[in-house]
Each structure stands twice: as structure tokens, then as C-alpha cells.
Design a protein that fits this description.
alpha/beta
């Protein structure tokens, strides 16, 4: 497991789920040694075996690690609530902060049918609303990942919505999509 260089917040989540102790400081190897067998087995199932569970929790852990790997030395927050310009408080599975400012938010669909155009539009509108709110001034990335795939109409819809944005650099938003297949997340262009 030490080869996987898992972020601390994932170790904390797994330790909490498995009621395990976790050494807070030190090398990854020492942290892993401080965890109970149940938590180590879960980490192995999720990251080495790339197993699936009916609730999609394993896919969520992999998603958290994927987003974290994209933003080195940034704070990754799980299950955050961010107010948008509309006044709606959006529940965001993953938010990334740099110097206290939101720079990216991510969503993952772990189970069910492939992502459709309606789901993409809902995600786009949420990201746009957050971007236009007081907490979104530095937001630059919206990441939508899937363990169940994307329908073609969804990707076309996201491209259409992205192109409809003004070319103003201050309001720029990048939308990234990634699919989990063959035990790895691959960005879709």
C-alpha cells in the first residue's frame, strides 16, 4: 500500500469507517502500520483490487484520490457545502482549495446508468452558480467523473454549454470529464 502514496484525508476516512487508530504524523509506512487489519484490507480492496461495492463507496475513495492527485499541495475537502450566486447551498462531493480559495469542485457517479445530458446540465449549472457566487471567484475547474460511463449526448451537451461561456479570462471555467475503466481514471476529451 505504501507505493500508492495515498493522501492523508483518505487514510482518515478509512480509519474512521473501520474504527481504526491512525498515527497522525510521520511517514506513510508508519501511518499504515498504525491502522487495524480491517482498514488495511479495505484500502487493498479499493486501490489494489479495484473492487466495486453496491453503494459505490469504493469508487468514491478512488475518485477522491484521483482529484487529489490533480492538485498537489492543495487542501481537498470531502462533502462540502458551497453557496452559489442563486443563494442555493450546493452539496459538493469534493472541493479543492488553494490558499483558502476554492479552485475546483468534483462530482463522481459511481453506480447506475451512464451519465446523460440532463445530469451534465445539472452539474454545469451547479458549477456555474458557485463560480458566480462569493466563494467561486477563483474557481477554475469542474470535474465530473464516472464509474458507469458517459452517454454521447452528455459529452456533446457539456461541450455546447462550455462554448456558450464568454471568453472573459476572469470568468473562465474548465470542465473536465474522466471515466474509470481498466482500473484507472482516464480523462475524456
Amino acid at each position: 500500500m505504501k507505493k500508492y502514496n495515498l493522501p492523508d484525508f483518505i487514510l482518515v476516512l478509512v480509519a474512521k469507517e473501520c474504527k481504526s487508530l491512525l498515527q497522525e504524523r510521520g511517514r506513510l509506512d508508519d501511518k499504515l502500520k498504525s491502522m487495524n487489519d480491517t482498514s488495511l484490507e479495505l484500502l487493498h480492496r479499493v486501490f489494489v483490487g479495484c473492487k466495486e461495492d453496491s453503494a459505490g463507496k469504493y469508487a468514491q475513495y478512488r475518485f477522491y484520490a484521483y482529484v487529489s492527485s490533480m492538485y498537489h499541495k492543495c487542501e481537498v475537502i470531502v462533502n462540502d457545502t458551497i453557496a452559489g450566486a442563486s443563494g442555493i447551498n450546493h452539496k459538493v462531493p469534493v472541493a479543492v482549495k488553494n490558499n483558502g480559495m476554492y479552485i475546483a469542485i468534483g462530482y463522481n457517479k459511481a453506480t447506475g446508468n451512464p451519465i446523460n445530458a440532463k445530469e451534465i446540465t445539472k452539474f454545469y449549472n451547479m458549477v456555474d452558480d458557485i463560480k458566480n457566487g462569493e466563494h467561486g471567484t477563483m474557481l477554475i475547474d469542474g470535474i465530473y467523473c464516472s464509474s458507469v460511463g458517459f452517454r454521447g449526448d452528455a459529452l456533446v451537451e457539456l461541450e455546447t454549454l462550455s462554448k456558450s461561456r464568454t471568453n472573459d479570462p476572469e470568468n473562465k471555467l474548465n470542465f473536465k470529464t474522466a471515466n474509470f475503466e481498466n482500473n484507472i481514471y482516464s480523462e475524456i476529451n
